[in-house]
Amino acid sequence: MLTARCLPAFCVSSFTAFAIPAGAHASMATYAFTFENDTMVHTDQNYTNGLFLDYNSAAKQHTDDLPWFSLSKLPWLSDRQEMLNKVGYRFGHQLWTPEDIALTEPEPDQRPYAALMFVETSVKQFSASRVDNYRLMIGAVGEQAQGDHFQKYIHRSIDVNEPMGWAYQIDDQWVLNAGFETDRLIHRDSFFSRWQYDISAKGRASLGNYQTEMATGLITRFGKNLDQSFGGIGFTPGKFNETPQYAADGSTGYFAYAGAEGRYRPYDITVDGDRPGEVSTNAEVLQATAVAGLVYYRQRWGTNISLSITSKEFEQSSHTYTATGAWGIFWKM
């Protein structure tokens, strides 16, 4: 029987089993590593760190050609004309902390400590002007996610203040979340012959005991070969830039982007979840995020960097916004 204490090994073994199917190296599958941290913008509070490993299968014309163990086998995901299909698997680890990590007991206007470890599977149907992405995530928060050990080890390694309040982190709990998001091209055009710009709309919704929310936003890009890499710009941790998943095999390009999203989020376990002590926090129901970044990719590899600024995520926060930086690298094999 799988117990909560087994989650780290379960996540790693699950990602390994799913991410390297037979024959993956013979096709243009995509592998990616993403690192997110608020020290990139000289802060250390709220959403403070994220590590993500991704595998996405080669694009297939028909869903029947995708790996059998995936969301692509859901009955309503039949083949769509002129849209390609991919299956993705992700392992992720994320941390949230209060502003003052030297305190041993929580303050009423600061975010609780929280850690999340998860695996996620997704199926993506996409073209040069549309992306539909279905996701299913399972994971755990609390001590079983090993956030305290990870952050303390890192802080000792780089000789900075050790976090002292992990005893008051969000309690152990399994989490399950399902989500859908779509990107639709509004307009794309060329200027100065070789350059392009486009504007797209994004809508998404998720339901579960991790986060429940609905959101919509706009994104604009400026660069080269935009029709070869449509989709993948997002507004939540781990999803600020997933362009590598949609870059066409053998294509090259680069672009700058910016976007903004508004969302309704009535529940967030990293804020609303149970924890020891009398201090409690409540999710800010109406939120907004702005993102900006750069993407550069060649036929077999690429890299990206992004910055996100988010309005306060819990009612008691004394800050009107927080910021996070992200860097990613990917390669195709």
Automatic annotation (TrEMBL):
Short name of any one Pfam family annotated for the protein: LpxR
Name of this chain's protein: Lipid A deacylase LpxR family protein
Highest classification ranks of the organism: Bacteria, Pseudomonadati, Pseudomonadota, Gammaproteobacteria, Cellvibrionales
UniProtKB keywords: Signal
Transferase is among the record's keywords: no
Signal peptide segment: 1-19
Alphabetized InterPro entries for the sequence: LpxR, Put_OMP_sf
